[in-house]
Amino acid sequence: MKLFRILNRYLERFITRKYVTYFFKRKINNTVISGPFLGMKYVDESVGSRFLPKLLGTYELEIAPTIRKTFEKSFEVIIDVGAAEGYYAVGMAMKNPKAGIIAFEADKNGRDSIEKMARINGVFDRIKVYGLCDAKSLTESIPNNKKCLIIMDIEGAEAILLDNFIIPKLNTCHIIVEIHDCCVFDGIGDMIQGRFKNTHKITEIWERKRMLEDFPMILPKLYNVFFKKYFIFNSMDEGRHDSLAAGQSARMRWFYLEPFNWA
Fold first, then answer.
1. What's CA 254's distance to the chain center, in Å?
2. What phi and psi, each to the nearest 5 degrees, are found at residue 177?
């Protein structure tokens, strides 16, 4: 049994992260093939997250309807905090041609990738890329009297930055934030809900398992029958549970905060 588990782990690592990644890169030419950013040209690797779900367009598919909903809002400024290699920063620039984009990313490789991906998708002139975001830089980035959207994924630091007492400008921003109370500390979500309950409508969106119908491609029958786990389910796996402690809740969630008073 132990030998089987070791072999299965090896096969999963080798097949999914080596051969399957190579297979999809060649087959779809580093272009996102589904989801809200269909057609976006991609860099060769991701930063801090799995690569294949982004290329397939199934990355964070739970919030894809919310992302599409924002396209109708005519935002003038979109701020991506924790932008990684630019999935949302560049994607939102493509889908919001009149918006200015501000991307914060602490990792230099991420910042370099954002700029590279912005260039190959023709939106470099509308994206400003900065390093680590703090309360001062976020305050300065939020415009006065303009429609602003903030997308945030900063591994628990949302508890610090999403404070409308310190940053009152947040009260008129739309905010999509990944909540990390399941893997950082309990109570982050409750804290943020308490801060914004009087200023925003808060919609809670829960992570869910990927299903066969989520997969955006038709594969050759041989792959579909014998390698379904590796080519379909593992390629959509975002690896969110890899580092969670045993016994800890593994289910992630997002909040979409819509301000009652909007600029």
1. 10
2. -135, 135
Residue 129 burial (C-beta neighbours within 10 Å; 0-12, 13-18, 19+): buried
Identify the residue with better confidence: 109 or 262.
Answer: 109
Cα(128)–Cα(114) distance, rounded to whole angstroms?
10
CA distances from 82 to 85, 143, 240, 253, 260 (A): 9, 19, 16, 16, 26
Between the CA of residue 235 and those of 13, 23, 26, 210, 211, what are the distances in Å?
11, 11, 15, 10, 12
Q: Which residues pair with 104 in a beta bridge?
A: 81, 130
Alpha carbon distance 70, 65 (integer Å):
9
The SS3 call for residue 199 is coil
Q: What is the architecture of the domain spanning 2-238+251-259?
A: 3-Layer(aba) Sandwich (3.40)
* Beta-sheet pairing, 174-179 with 148-152: parallel
What pTM was estimated for this model as a whole? 0.89
Q: Is 176 helix (H, G, I), strand (E, B) or coil?
A: strand
Phi and psi based region of residue 39 (left: phi greater than 0; alpha: psi -120 to 50; beta: remaining) = left
Nearest to 55 by CA among 72, 69, 40: 40
pLDDT in tens, 142-179: 999 899 999 999 988 999 999 999 999 999 999 999 99
